Structures are given as structure tokens and as C-alpha cells.
Amino acid sequence: MAKVRRGIPVRDIIAAIRAGRLPVGRRTDADGYRALIVPKAVLNNWRDRRREAQEEGLLSVAAFGRSIGIRGEGTFLAMAEAGYIPCRTQINTRTRQAQLVINPDDIARFHRTYMTTHTIAAEHGLIEIRSPRA
After folding, report:
1. How far apart are CA 114 and CA 69, in angstroms?
2. Which of 25, 44, 55, 104 could form a disulfide with 37 if both were Cys (CB 3.0 to 4.6 A apart)?
3. Could you tell me which residue, 94 or 132, shows the higher pLDDT?
């Protein structure tokens, strides 16, 4: 039920329980996952932190690369790691892994400096670029 009520993936909840970061109880009137109970306050805190990250407008470097037509083989990520693309490292709230993220100002700076065939086509109305999900 916590997944449904709070929008937090079950794997994140289970991982936090296993790591000892989330206290857990057990209902005697239920079986399986439904028997596990966790404090709502802790889950609300997780949800709020995710919203804050989304509100910052941060986007993973990989997602931004895909949105401008640079896919596969780590080309865009290599450019970011080499310092050609301004970005920073942040812990992904869902996977708990470090990832490179880019903010809206840096995206604008990228577009002032670089062009891809994808962005050229979008600029001339040949295709529509959709905003990637954060």
C-alpha cells in the first residue's frame, strides 16, 4: 500500500528495510508484502525529497543527450565527464546511484555552444523535440 499511497517503488522500500534505514513492522492479519508496515512520516520525507529534486529542474545527462539525438555508446556522457558539458554529480533518489545531472541554465548554455542534427531539424520545424522526463 505504501507504493500506491506514496508513489515509491517497492524495490526502494525493500532496499531501505534491508539496509536498516527504514523501520518495519508486521501485521498479523495479513500475509506477504501486505503484512509489512512502515512509518508514513518516513515515506512522506522520501516523497518530498523526490519532488524537490524534480522541482529543481535537474535532468540526467543521459536523458538530455537522448532528447537532442545523441544516443548510445556513451558519447554524450564522455563529453560531460571530459568537462565539455557543464553538469554535476547527484545521487539518484530512485536508484541511489551517483549520476551526472544538468540544470536548465546549463542546457541553455549547451544550446548556445553546440548544435546537433536533431536540434537543427527542430529549429527549422522539421521535427518536434519532446521534453524528457527527469
Report:
1. 13
2. 25
3. 94
